[in-house]
Records
---
Amino acid sequence: MANNSYSGVKNSTANHHGDFGCSLKDLRSLMELRGAEAIGKIGESYGDVQGLCTRLKTSPVDGLSGQPADIDKRKEVFGQNLIPPKKPKTFLQLVWEALQDVTLIILEVAAIVSLGLSFYRPPDAEREHCGSAAGGVEDDGEAEAGWIEGAAILLSVVCVVLVTAFNDWSKEKQFRGLQSRIEQEQKFAVVRGGQVIQIPVAEIVVGDVAQIKYGDLLPSDGILIQGNDLKIDESSLTGESDHVKKTLERDPMLLSGTHVMEGSGKMLVTAVGENSQTGIIFALLGASEEDDDDEEEKESGPVCYLFSLSPSLPCLAKNLAAGAVEFSYGDLARRLQPFNVSSLLSPSAKAADGAAMEMQPLNSDEVDIDEKRKSNLKEKKEKSVLQGKLTKLAVQIGKAGLVMSAITVIILVVLFVVDTFWVQGLPWHKDCTPIYIQFFVKFFIIGVTVLVVAVPEGLPLAVTISLAYSVKKMMKDNNLVRHLDACETMGNATAICSDKTGTLTMNRMTVVQAYVADKHYRNVPEPQLIPAAIMDILVLGISVNSAYTTNIMVREKEGGLPRQVGNKTECALLGFANDLKRDYQAIRNEIPEEKLYKVYTFNSCRKSMSTVLKNADGSFRMFSKGASEILLKKCSKLLTASGETKVFRPRDREDMVKKVIEPMASEGLRTICLAYRDFPVSEGEPDWDQENDILTSLTCVCVVGIEDPVRPEVPDAIKKCQRAGITVRMVTGDNINTARAIATKCGILQPGDEFLCMEGKEFNRRIRNEKGEIEQERIDKIWPKLRVLARSSPTDKHTLVKGIIDSTVLEQRQVVAVTGDGTNDGPALKKADVGFAMGIAGTDVAKEASDIILTDDNFSSIVKAVMWGRNVYDSISKFLQFQLTVNVVAVIVAFTGACITQDSPLKAVQMLWVNLIMDTFASLALATEPPTESLLLRKPYGRNKPLISRTMMKNILGHGVYQLIIIFTLLFVGEQIFDIDSGRYAPLHSPPSEHYTIIFNTFVLLQLFNEINARKIHGERNVFDGIFNNLIFCSIVFGTFIIQIVIVQWGGKPFSCVGLSIDQWLWCTFLGFSSLLWGQLISSIPTKSLRFLKSAGHGTQRQEIPDEELEDMEEMEEIDHAERELRRGQILWFRGLNRIQTQMDVVSAFQSGSSFQERQLRRQPSTSSQQQHDVTNVSSPTHVAFSTTATDANTASSTVGCECVFP
């Protein structure tokens, strides 16, 4: 399909490419080349990049005109910069998927059998021979209505399926909306009409001139026009981890989906969307998925190499085909990271890799690989804490339900058989067989219904609804959630490692102090106070030695502040130039970016930026700016008030640090040094690659103090975090004095605290041993008291985060959230349990590595994320408390009723209605409770806290016992209380009774009022607190009550109900309401006194998973606890069979004297599970290890080893 679309594009370009001087096909073939080959092709076909610009009717300086007609024409000829997502699943497909549920299929089959048999009626004369249970039907109309129960069950199944499908559909719609929002917010800087503008990534067209800078994720393919120290990470496409230097002379080819790691520049866009290199791979993945059934095509297509080597790529393709994943360059880049795609797509790779895929002998090298693989598996990311606990709990409840339903069916069948054929002593009549089968089907339906009620299929639904609802609401709180489980993990957070700039501070920087011309100015000096010679050097350095994308824009409204665009530190310096009444833009116009001779862009290692200008006489001048204490060490001269330079000795530097830099830093100012260096003609042109020799012997011009005020809401937000048991740490690249001052203003440090503030260098010294290796024990001595890490590199940040997460020094394992904005923050963001990227200041790379994007870059938004995360956890616990009460009561009532009265007091259709209330409606009602500030008054739950606390267990058992007493009282003496006929021991097809209708009605009303009780899980007394803040909850409770009235009064035969009188309704309602009063009584009992209560719903600890199961999970990206629980039985079963078979072979081999190896080999083809991978089975007392890798009969005996050890 993808190929067809390509041919369509190619055909359409045939008519148009003449207008542009080069076709889509030419550009695509050009972008497949690299390095010297690409430069040769550009020179041969177009002369140079300028020539290609001319052919594409664009200007390397002014870009496209931006005329709508021109843009539309380019989209038509060269395509749009988007890859259309796969179509979402239709509602009918979702219905079909919902129908695959095993319990529903069983119910459908049973209902159809029941429906068919209900139409059979034996002659009246024969009926009396079929036992007392079959008789008793006086009304022919009632007997003819026997089909209604089967039909009602089918109808209920349809309802359940439709509700499930609708939930899936709305969930998918929400996620697609979220994805499109993320994509819409992605913008990129292009030059159009000579102006730099930000446009959505999808609007970029071939011929655009895009400005690229540090941290960008390239949205299209292009050719470099001009670059400054540009380095690209192409590992997502080539697998090479080294950064590739891009220059016009060596390699100007830039590819979509790659990351700019250093530098800046301009590129000419040459391929977009499906025609870019990433787009081509993406389309191949999609095409391969479509051709999956056609083996020949799959074998001949290049993407089969992708599939053979990467387990994650087919998953990506499947997700794409299913419409679960929408296109995102970053997403593809991330997923293709470990694979060298260019080599995968070359035919030569197939032969080599094909050979490698053959099974090899289990030698020592392979054992090493096996060990590494095991260690990698143990590092696999587990599914979120909550998912792990829930899936394990759901599987355990499901198993218990299965046992109960099986026992119910067996008891019903046994009682019926004993009563009919033994007590009544009746023979088996052939004419009675359909009636007996009807009974058995009825019993089977009751058993399946018990299972349906027992299996908590509402749990995943509750999680989904709660998370989706939270994600939607979190958007309003400036949290754009990229990974759903991050929302819930945030509720468990115990530590937050936060950046300073922009997160804790406003990221609106201004120069407020300056040391210039031997004088420290406490305020920005007047222009006339600075000598002209110094002023010219200072303003020229500020203007050219900054990214040209950084600008101070005019005020948007009267009285407002000028708008800062780009790097905020550079904006502060440009603002300083404006304050000195100089126009930096005029200097930039005189010296455009193309005239800059060499640029050393800022990065976390340099902590500085330098720009070289070539003078008319052939000499060079380099301007530098950077962190003051770092750059001052590289200065050997100082510019004096007279405009002359004087020697700047180490002693002078120490004086300046004490008298200028430390006082500025103690006021929370960021200090920046501005310097320059001249390279005279006489010395010749220096070697610009020898950076250490270049960046030395500088002349200091000025030191400025830049203020970045603390956000007014941050101190209060940090106080809330500390009260909620969350430790906030500041990790910054700033000077330690500046960091300490800001941390004190924020409240991270309190006067008199014994907490640590240290620099990255000191941190590294303390955590490493003599060999320079990091030791966890050393980190454990530091991190509990560490509050500020200054002058830290991204590596330090990653080390700290990893150290805290891996630490076992505290009883509770830490859950760490991290904020980051830079490209190099990626590893720390990925390592953290929850990574927050800055939406405004953050680079594309940081956003791709994050779980949540803060759209306002504000720390107080993180506190809101904590609130929502805790709310999700509580919502699930509320739902669990409610559902387990219903589960326990419904299963025991059905089971006991069936055993004693040979019929369940709650009929199949009634149980399905209860299931609907309990699963879908309750999950919607309880999972949409809004969060309150009180959530921040308790400590985090942590990873090991059970889902069901002892307080919840007290509520579940307390309400369960109370409800059972009421239901059983009504069941056995209800007819006497209400003076009505008994409904017990009713024969087949008997009409519904008032007795059982009252039981059903009371049961439902008990659940309805208990739903209000379930709103509180920490023993609070006021269950109505804030109930009207949740309209969904009120609507569902009220709506369920109305539907219950309709079912009871007018449900009739399908619901096994008869209309009740007002008195009966009032009694049922009173009994339901009494559960609220009972709840008050339960909450009065202190949980501590009930020592016999146990908590439940602990997550699986990683150490609980045996190594062999980790091996079985090799293909999984995450450890799925439910899958693990369910597969464990299968694994043990196959392993047991395998061992028995192996041991039988060993015995028979010794008996017959034949070779065990030969026998083992003969068995190989039929044992598919062993053909897939080398198997090492270790059991006691017998242990057998074998490796099946023979490629032909001749090598078989040498490659198959057998070791048998007997006691």
---
Amino acid sequence: MSKRCISYSDGVSMLLNIDTTVTLARKRWRVARAAIYFFRALLSVVKQNVPTIGSSVHQPYTILDVEPPSPLSSPPSSIDAAQLSRTVKERSLDSLNEIGGVHGIAKSLETHIENGIPGDHHDVQWRREKFGSNRYTRPPPKGFLYFVWNAFKDPTLIILLVCATLALGFGIKEHGPKEGWYEGGSIFVAVFLVVIVSAISNFKQDRQFNKLSKISDDIMINVVRASRPQQVSIFDIVVGDIVILKIGDQIPADGLFIDGHSLQIDESSTTGESEHIDVDSTTNPFLHSGSKVADGYGRMLVTSVGMNTGWGEMMSSINREIAEETPLQVRLNGLTSSIGKIGLLVAFLVLVVLLARYFTGNTQDNGGNKEFKGKQTGVNSILNSVTKIISAAVTIVVVAIPEGLPLAVTLTLAYSMKRMMADQAMVRKLSACETMGSATVICTDKTGTLTLNRMQVTKSWIGEEEASQRISPDVLKLLHQGVGLNTTGSVYIPFQRAAPEITGSPTEKAILTWAVNELGMDMETVKQSCSILQVESFNSTKKRSGVLMKSNSNWTFHVHWKGAAEIVLAMCSNYYTIAGMRTAMDEDSRKRIKLVIESMAASSLRCIAFAHGQVSEEELEYTEQDKAHLKLKEQGLTLLGIIGLKDPCRPEVKNAVDVCKRARVQIKMITGDNIFTAKAIATECGILGFEQHEGEVVEGVEFRNYTHEERMQTVDKIRVMARSSPLDKLLMVQCLKQKGHVVAVTGDGTNDAPALKEADVGLSMGIQGTEVAKESSDIVILDDNFNTVVTVLRWGRCVFNNIQKFIQFQLTVNVAALVINFIAAVSAGEVPLTAVQLLWVNLIMDTLGALALATERPTKELLDEPPVGRTAPLITNIMWRNLLSQALYQIAVLLTLQFKGESIFHVTKEVKDTLIFNAFVLCQVFNEFNSRRMENMNIFEGLHRNPLFIGIIGFTIILQAVMVEFLKKFADTERLNWQQWVACIIIGAMSWPIGLLVKLIPVPEEPFFASLARYTNTLPQQDPYCFVLLGTNWGSADVVFDTPLMSRDAVCEGPYVV
């Protein structure tokens, strides 16, 4: 439909005649409407006065809605995805050549071999639709019912369910459906409640582990899209992407080699073969997902992703089980087994006593009549009574077996993993959480961990002169080549006169920034002027990298080296002056240049030197191992220049080092920098004092050349190891472990993998760390910060401390419940606590107690104590003191209520039993506060920071009140008046002053059972560290050493158990 056109004059008139008396909002609206009319009128005038090309007819002005092309429409691609995937999987060169080779495939995939894919949303979308996404189908996660079923498999709960079934049947038969279901039904409900709470806890933990697993799988990949180097998630990789590979990277998908140098791939994760495979463009251009880059660098074209790769097919069939048991869980399982045996013994004795009393006619029913009258008693009545007795005995077993201990470990590990993730530490291996708490030594890198990893070139020297004046054009040209060709970084300029975008490692970025800004280097011009023939990649052993190139202008061959200043200097016999003169390097000039390096290093600068050498065609040699690779000249070079990179210390590091020292944890800095830089940084961080002692600082080569005995003698003294290689780091870790230390090691390079695996806790760097290093580690430090390492140490100690709190709490309940029920059964022929009541107590201490105490946050006091050591006893003398005092108090009070309660409170037997039940539960509630602080007098410290603890306590009290006051039939209780409630609360609250008083009682540091064994002369003289802690089956438990400085590989003689 045509629109009415408004003339230019009408539009102006409307714009000028806007009513000025309207409100501001209406005025603005009218101005906007008038403006729209004005511009429409203006467009009409233009259309009427400008003739249309090819037509003399004036068309009226109309508005057209032009729909953009569908974002899902994909450009035509002749390539078959299945054939492409099969070609790479089968490594078929013939098939590859048939479909056009790498360049032909790139063209079919709409990929520019240099600039990559366009990378916009529409482009990525059609690639995903045609070739799939880079995700593999995971096995479905376990559902909630799986964990419910697992919880029902507990043998004691199964016995209880059988008893409940019998009780239900007998009850209904005897009292009818209306009244007879209470006892059996109550047990059913209580068991179901225990099962549901346990299943919910395990279900949530499994979900959390799955979530952390997905986070650890999400690694960043370097790609080129729309000419721009950038990082994308591995899940966002699509077919056609150009991926940049360097040492330590994981290959994110199947693909083909485009170009690169010295590229070697480790396919052990996919094929099991440990031999590294050479990849090139002629004989083996195939790259497979899941493999790692062992050496060199290169670019690849992605041809298959996700389920179309061999790695995807393999991983989709693997179900990741969280079945790993940590050392602490193993020890706790042994403790649980020992306590369970004691519980079984007590339950058996109770069962025998109750059955004997019943069949001898010493028990009475509620009416005061004998329950068993010989032949006069019916079979149903006998079976009903026996079922009750068996139910009570089985319930004692349920309470006695501390199945909450493994749950407490699981909860505290899951909670600490979640909190550590928020604190920039991702746990890959569960046992690392607890082992870190025992660490006695931390071996740390310098760059990025102790420092900010923000490199900047602050000094540069040409020969013996500081480069503060104009550099000779010839030297400048060689420096451009030495920086621009011998690098793994890149320089991208989005448009003319735009600021360059520089990517690469912090060191490479700093050098490239200096070359571009200070030396005026044009990266593209340098690359086009030369052809690279051979590359030797940088690694932490050689501490240098080199490149052999041919000039495209005069066809001459040149070699460029870059690396640690003193190492490159040793390769040179000449040097350039700032004026461009090539001068022979005599001993005096070499010493002066060394002094320049040392002075820069003493100022905490990392020194890097550049060297150049021209090579004649006759001098070109091939490597001995592989005649296909050219050998780079290493001697007789000319020094181009030296630069000093400043990397400031992290401001929080000094405080973190002080915290470690206070916690009796040694810090050893292991760095590849020279000894002067290492000393300066270590002093600034507080690792070294201003007055240094002999043996505190060594170089890697010196430590490496020691004899084994010398290394063992000096390893404890060493604080700094400079110019170290990954082998030196591994040697130090091995020596420290042989000395009995628990060692944590940080690492970021591929060559650090052996040391990370050898250490008790391997800590890889999340930013600068390679994928090989991350996979070899137990914990990934996401921000590369040493302060996070200290946070991990604090959480590690918190895990062990929380477990000890729960053990103290649970054993108090175990001891009290067992003794009370046993004495009552033997003396009175009945247990004061029914099956349902004991199941409720079991729920409080096993599940809710574990949840409350296992989620305590770490306190500052944890790092004021020495490390617990890998073999410290689970139950310390302090814990024995606390739990025995509380258990004895509860036993004394509750047995008094059992035998004298009716006369003291002038109540019936049913009310007395309810008082015992209520007082017992409230004792556990108040004792939970005591368990928060085993030594600290202030048990309320930090309570406001743990809302979960407060919530669980409140929830427990509310449910207890409901049980007592409203669930008479269910819980077999009677309602209590307010005086009786006050009495129960006072009984429970008395545990606070008792806990306060017993903390004034000093205890010896030596474990109680070790002292007992020593005094009774049961230990052989040559094994003073073996001792009996707990156990009923001699020779069946593991030997534990009561010292953190004793080798875990040592063996004690004799059947001494823990």
